[in-house]
Amino acid sequence: MYRHYIKLLFILGFVANPSQGFTEDTLVSKLSQQLCDKSIVLLGELPSHGEALAFQTKAKISQQLISQCGFDALFFEAPVYEFYGLRNNDKPQPEDLDHAIGGFWMTQELVSWRQWLFERMQNNGLYLAGIDSNVSRTSFYAKRHLPDLVAKQLPSEKNKSCHHAIDQYLHWRYDQQNPFTEDINQQLIACLSSAKNQQPKTAANYLIEQLLMENFKVNLLPIKAQSFPNNRTGMMFKNFQWQKSELPKDAKIIVWTASVHAAKQQGTIKQAPLGSLLTEQYGTQVTAIGFSAYSGESSMAGMPVKPIEAAPEDSLEAQVLNSKNDWVFFDNKQLSDYGQIQSRLFGQFRTEQWDQYFDGVVVFKKEKAPTFQ
């Protein structure tokens, strides 16, 4: 009976065989081999965006996919504006890539990897892109160029006031005496709407400039007023399609994002995630891998370290306790065997049939907070 029980644990992924040498490098090798033949690979992480082991593992996997499996591009859940500026910079510097990737991943653990990405971009033509409409603290290209981009489309009576309003917003120059109000927000939306209507469709870079302004406008619209494709997820999909169109038709792309965006179906998620839109478009060439942790620590963009509370014993994450290793990888078949089970893959614990969302899930026994620069 005991031998049958142990065999079942192996089948379900509960126990990693010590004789197989299941180190972190084994995990990277295992996943890289599984993903090598795919065209679009989404690598998720917890929505807290603050887990060093997940960061390091994703970095190693993406490096292997690029160097050994011929992947051509890496798209980040990071501001689209910065990477557009980076690709159009005649003399980019490593810090320009750091600023584009942003504060979530500006960690000591990823220093050498970011340098490798920069060199690969410069010397081997690796295409790096952002797909998010948000503007971050390190969105220096957006802060420099978006006010001019909008203002140049407008008649003289509007361009100065709109330029000032957008510049003030991007640098967040508001205080108690000059607060950000709904009237200001509506002014910004009006500036962007007017610019879109004024811009000649024959202008150079018309479509790209339209997309950049659409992205910025999404940040200003109330959530209740957003609908696909004019919401954050819709813009991620648009940005993906635009930047994919600049690559060869058979290009292979990695998407670095949160697991909730990587999910391959909408299910109980309020908005259709990017992974579901890509799966609808590209079918079986899309693979999504989720990342989670049983316990540990987390820190988002240099904020104070927070504990990751131990997962309930009946959760997907708790199964890592049955392993002698620091992680467990559950493939799609193993996720299917669990049926409905709770997990924190989307942040809060919820019970789902996780094989319908992911092709595989990595769970770390004890996550670590990253060290920020």
Overview features:
disordered N terminus, 8-stranded mixed beta sheet, alpha/beta, globular, 2 domains, 373 residues, single chain, Rossmann fold
What is this structure's SSE topology?
Elements (H helix, E strand, L loop, with lengths): L1 H11 L11 H12 L4 E4 L8 H17 L4 E7 H8 L6 H8 L9 H14 L2 E6 L7 H12 L4 H15 L11 H17 L7 H13 L13 H13 L8 E4 L2 H4 L11 H9 L3 E13 L7 E3 L18 E5 H7 L1 E4 L6 E4 L6 E8 L6
Parallel strand pairs: 1-4, 1-5, 2-3, 2-4, 5-10
Antiparallel strand pairs: 5-6, 7-10, 8-9
In short:
By secondary structure, the chain is α/β, with parallel strands linked by helices. Helices cover 43% and strands 16% of the residues. The radius of gyration is 22 Å and the shape is globular.
Structure in words:
The protein is α/β, with parallel strands linked by helices and 373 residues long. It folds into two domains: 211 residues, Rossmann fold (3-Layer(aba) Sandwich); 79 residues, no CATH class. It has 14 helices and ten strands. Strands 1, 2, 3, 4, 5, 6, 7 and 10 form an eight-stranded mixed β-sheet that branches. It has a two-stranded antiparallel sheet with strand order 8-9. It starts with a helix and ends in a 6-residue tail after the last strand.
